[in-house]
Amino acid sequence: MKKWIMSGLFFFACAFALVLMFTVPGREHVTEEEQPRAMPEVTLDAAAAEEKAKASCITCHGNQLEGGMGPSLQTIGAKHDANKLYQIISEGTGGGMPAFEGQLTEEEIANLALWLSEKK
């Protein structure tokens, strides 16, 4: 009797493994979803970027971007390039940085990311 139960469980486990192999997405699907969006190409407009920073960033990052609730952004360009900054501003972080994707246009975010990337 035990042999029948064990062989039945083994057969069920093999069948379940086969079903999972063909229904769960593979690595190629997961890596495609995790790739960040490309930053749109914009020409840096420093005055517009500074204005957006004053409107959107100073509450957490300070009047001179010296830090406050959020980290200092005065030398953020030495740590992150424009593409990474674009991703952070767009999507936010889990550590308290909100996503600005719905509040600013992609071009405004890209311009702000370019401006911040020059702060080294």
What does this molecule look like?
The chain has 120 residues and is mainly α. It is elongated. The chain is built from 6 helices and no strands.
Brief digest:
Residues 44-120 form the Cytochrome c domain. By secondary structure, the chain is mainly alpha-helical.
Summarize the helices and strands and which ones pair or pack.
Elements: H1 2-23, H2 27-34, H3 46-56, H4 58-61, H5 82-91, H6 106-117
Keywords: Electron transport, Heme, Iron, Metal-binding, Transport
Protein name: C-type cytochrome
Domain Cytochrome c: 44-120
Biggest pleated sheet = none
Helicity, as a percent range = 55-70%
How many strand units? 0
Total helical elements: 6
Q: Which structural class best describes the helix and strand composition?
A: mainly alpha
Low-confidence stretches: none
Order of helices and strands: HHHHHH
Main attributes of the structure:
single chain; 120 residues; mainly alpha; 6 helices
